[in-house]
Amino acid sequence: MKEATVKSQYSMPDRGSSALRRIFSSWETLLLAVGILIFFLNTQASPYFLDPWNLSDATFNFTEKAMIAFAMAMLIIAGEIDLSVASIIALSSTAMGFAVQMGADTPTLVAVGIGVGVLCGAFNGFLVAVLGLPSIVITIGTLSLFRGLAFIVLGDKSYSGYPESFTFFGQGYVWWVITFEMVLFLLAAIVFYVLLHRTSFGRATVAIGNNPTAALFSGIRVPRVKFILFLLTGLMAGIAAVCLTSRLGSTRPSIAVGWELEIVTMVVLGGVSILGGSGSILGVFIAALVMGMVTFGLGLLNVPGIVMSIFVGLLLIGVIALPIILRRTSNRLRRAGAH
């Protein structure tokens, strides 16, 4: 009894210390520190950065992409990927534009946009989860297919004439400078956090990413989980299409070109392993804020869009390559030390 008490007295401070060490050495904490540094640099780079309305406008740089990134994070953790998300936005927006030409009202437009997104996600999910085809190849194909259909319908034209009430989804404010999109982004973050970290579905997703064969033999319905994940990605792409079309007030087939690169970068920057099996929604949430502040800060400095694309590409290569290089270097040093 006495021995147990003494052991407890010594073990409690160790647990607290190791928990603190884990928090301060985590990827999310490092990312948060980078975000604070970028925020400070932006305040020094432009006197207009701290204006509340400018900060509110800055959220448009990442909220729509981040909503898709949450679903994409779960898909990548399960060992799959969807590169067609930007093309799903284009096809959903085109369908909404066609519907508005037929006289559709706002609720119908929202249903059409989200419905087309879900159908596209189901199409990807059927090919990957049911037929067992590789997701990277399939979604590169549907990337061209969905965007191509939008170009066939619209050509070099555009759809406009959306109802006044439709503009609320992309331009509306819930309170003061808090946009409807920002509220939607926060709700999506909470929902996907609970789904990944607090439910059996989330645990099944991580198990599939670590070892799909072992997950199958342990009773997890792997094809069903993957199909639902593709559905969720299509659903979030449909919601993003509604917000983006509402914000722009028109539809062009080239809408959201290149977004898949930024969304995947957001997910990987958030600490999600590109090989699957690990990652957190909190990391993706902070990564979205960091990328939003970087692009907004560069915009305030009048940096051209092509330079931002180069930056995002280099960032993607860096966050994938750096951990691998560091791990290989560490292994070599350990082997050299052993000899």
**H/I helix tally:** 15
Number of strands: 2
CATH topology annotation: ABC transporter involved in vitamin B12 uptake, BtuC
Query: What share of residues is helical?
Result: over 70%
CATH architecture: Orthogonal Bundle
SSE string, helices as H and strands as E: HHHHHHHHEEHHHHHHH
The CATH H-level homologous superfamily: ABC transporter involved in vitamin B12 uptake, BtuC
Assign the CATH class. Mainly Alpha
Proportion of strand residues: under 5%
End-to-end CA span: 46 Å
> Describe the biggest sheet?
2 strands, antiparallel
Q: What would the average pLDDT be, to the nearest integer?
A: 87
Taken from the alpha-carbon principal axes, the silhouette is: globular
Biggest sheet strand line-up: 1-2
Radius of gyration based on Cα positions: 22 Å
Summing up helix and strand content along with how strands pair, one would put the structural category as: mainly alpha
How many domains is the backbone divided into? 1
The low-confidence parts are 1-12
